């Protein structure tokens, strides 16, 4: 089950953390994976080389998802090279935390540009290609805080909540073309993004998780692999929460 042989996948922000695990999981299932990065070329190369060393297929592609033209061109290049794009995982994201009263305008702008506009830019370019093929999978990386909110994450959580609305709307727009669009909403996952938190902050969060631990990138990637598969053909406009019960 969940085999992806012959599928072409683009994973934005595949160089580190959750994106890296998604690249590895999709490749393990047989997909050819395009590993996107913005700054971490060496890390993206390492992800692709690791996949290839294990017998999988991967390549790297650097572009800033917040640059709509660059995202469009990147998707066009993937389609030109491989003849199609079956799976887009819009995973690239940043977090800039701060209480609303302390957030700077440029922080709010950057969060919206990368997390929201970047995901929409990639989805727009990808669905254009998928529409012609009359099949496709789009997966957005939202967050538990997009549904439950969090002190100090007003702007970040707003972008993640917006992705849920976007996934549901795009799912409706493209259902007749056999393209499914879903979101995965992780809870507290150990990655670079959460590494700046103090042990005290981590302990506090873990206390609010019924499964009493942080999640792993692989656990998030498994949900993406399912949504990308043929077996998930009847799942669209949905949110899969990988959060240890933190929000139910
Ligand atoms: P991470 O470790 O900080 O990695 C972020 C990835 O996004 C990197 O590969 C980075 O590429 C890429 N990226 C950042 N800005 C980009 C841009 N403008 N264009 C292209 N790529 C860009 O983050 P993570 O924890 O794995 O999070 C992945 C996703 O899951 C994010 O959308 C995040 O909001 C979401 N999420 C994470 C958690 C968590 O607890 N970690 C919880 C809920 C949701 P470079 O290496 O090139 O910088």
UniProtKB/TrEMBL annotation:
The keyword Mitochondrion does not apply. It catalyses: a (3R)-hydroxyacyl-[ACP] + NADP(+) = a 3-oxoacyl-[ACP] + NADPH + H(+). InterPro entries: 3oxo_ACP_reduc (IPR011284), KR_dom (IPR057326), NAD(P)-bd_dom_sf (IPR036291), SDR (IPR050259), SDR_fam (IPR002347). The keyword NADP applies. Its EC number is 1.1.1.100. Keywords: Fatty acid biosynthesis, Fatty acid metabolism, Lipid biosynthesis, Lipid metabolism, NADP, Oxidoreductase. NADP(+) binds at residues 13-16, 91, 156-160, 189. This is 3-oxoacyl-[acyl-carrier-protein] reductase. It comes from Labilithrix luteola.
